[in-house]
Design goal:
Layout lengths: L5 H29 L3 H28 L9 H15 L4 H32 L3 H32 L3 H6 L6 E5 L14 E4 L4 E11 L4 E7 L7 E5 L3 E4 L4 E4 L3 H4 L7 H6 L2 H12 L22 H8 L4 H4 L4 H8 L10 H8 L8 H4 L9
Parallel strand pairs: 2-7
Antiparallel strand pairs: 1-3, 2-3, 3-4, 4-5, 6-7
Helix pairs in contact: 1-2, 1-3, 1-4, 2-5, 3-4, 4-5
């Protein structure tokens, strides 16, 4: 299919998502049957029912456009399904298999969250507000399913899968690690440096990397400040929003406060022990209002899903040539979201970032007055 407009890209991505959901509906019952923990079986079964609803929403969107839905093979999801089959066929204890099933299920959620985040944004730019609302509902349900899996894993599965030897012989992994901006790709958000500004539109610096936890989940962004002797500091990812209009990151932090914010030094950070790291985190979080996402207990790591702008605009858009520079663990995470299909041409890339539909396509993509999904 030739991608000649944002509308074409929108339909193509929806067709791929339809095939992905179809594969998920076939896979989840097998994962549920193989699961040992009742909570895990219940969660997988519930999400299978939600996935059927997701298919109905995709069909409804095509019906509203008067277009025929022709699913296009989703090679990315096919890879996840093959990995799931490999896990199910491996000899393992019941608890270890549950941990593996949970990991596969979360890969599914992350892949779908990235896809639905993109098509939701396309729908908004095509002025299809009712379709954007439907896609947002699906995106919310994928996020809730991911959080349920995380809660199940933390409460039961991962601890149960550990042996006594794991508890006493294995060294404790570092909780937080640095991933520099050269290992990331934020061009979907900004073609130049991705700036960080506060609510007063004062520039606080530029995006310079991420701090991720042992499960490779982003916890902080690294900001390189100007006028502060080139210093760097961290901002909790939950405090940072993406301003689509200005194409900058926003944070509720006064500039005078930012100048007193604890500095981040990579070399020093790498040598911090657990106790010192907890103290450093406590110093960071004290600068944000309690109850606003930054008032969690010092030393604790937020286990909720990363912000959508980070998932769809930075962390999951890794081009192959940059992915090769990553560590094995980080590259595996990034490549979960890289479908094994050709890269879009330049016009398609422009369509992703241009909020205005092409001139010759506006009349066809803007719904007439009162034309809403029923």
């Amino acid at each position: 299919m030739t991608i000649g407009s944002l509308k074409d890209l929108y339909f193509d991505e929806l067709s791929v998502l339809y095939d992905a959901e179809t594969q998920v509906i076939r896979l989840l019952p097998r994962l549920a049957e193989a699961a040992h923990a009742p909570e895990l079986r219940e969660g997988l079964t519930k999400h299978c029912d939600e996935s059927r609803l997701h298919l109905e929403r995709l069909q409804l969107i095509f019906t509203h456009w008067g277009e025929r839905l022709a699913p296009r093979p989703c090679h990315g999801m096919a890879g996840v399904v093959r990995e799931a089959d490999d896990r199910l066929n491996q000899p393992a204890t019941a608890d270890a298999r549950d941990a593996a099933i949970t990991g596969v299920a979360q890969r599914i959620e992350h892949y779908e969250m990235a896809g639905y985040g993109c098509v939701r944004t396309y729908a908004r730019r095509l002025n299809r507000t009712d379709e954007a609302r439907l896609l947002q509902e699906t995106l919310d349900e994928e996020g809730r399913a991911d959080r349920r899996l995380t809660e199940i894993a933390e409460a039961h599965v991962n601890d149960d899968a550990r042996t006594e030897g794991d508890l006493h012989e294995q060294p404790r992994a570092r909780k937080l690690r640095f991933v520099g901006v050269t290992q990331l790709d934020h061009t979907r958000l900004s073609k130049s440096a991705l700036l960080v500004r506060n609510d007063a539109d004062e520039e606080l610096g530029r995006f310079d990397g991420l701090i991720v936890d042992v499960d490779v989940r982003p916890q902080y962004i690294v900001v390189a400040a100007r006028g502060l002797f080139g210093s760097r500091y961290l901002l909790p990812v939950g405090q940072v929003l993406f301003d689509e209009r200005q194409r900058v990151l926003r944070v509720r932090l006064d500039k005078s406060v930012a100048e007193r914010y604890p500095a981040f030094d990579r070399d020093e950070f790498e040598t911090m022990g657990d106790e010192r790291l907890r103290g450093y985190e406590a110093g960071l979080l004290e600068f944000f209002p309690r109850g606003a996402g930054g008032g969690r207990k010092a030393g604790s790591v937020d286990q909720s899903a990363p912000p959508e702008w980070l998932m769809t605009g930075v962390w999951v858009t890794m081009p192959p040539e940059r992915a090769e520079r990553l560590s094995d663990e980080t590259r595996n995470f990034a490549n979960e979201f890289s479908p094994n299909r050709p890269q879009p041409d330049r016009e398609a890339i422009v369509a992703r970032t241009d909020p205005t539909p092409p001139a010759d396509n506006r009349d066809r993509t803007t719904p007439p007055h009162g034309d809403k999904l029923r």
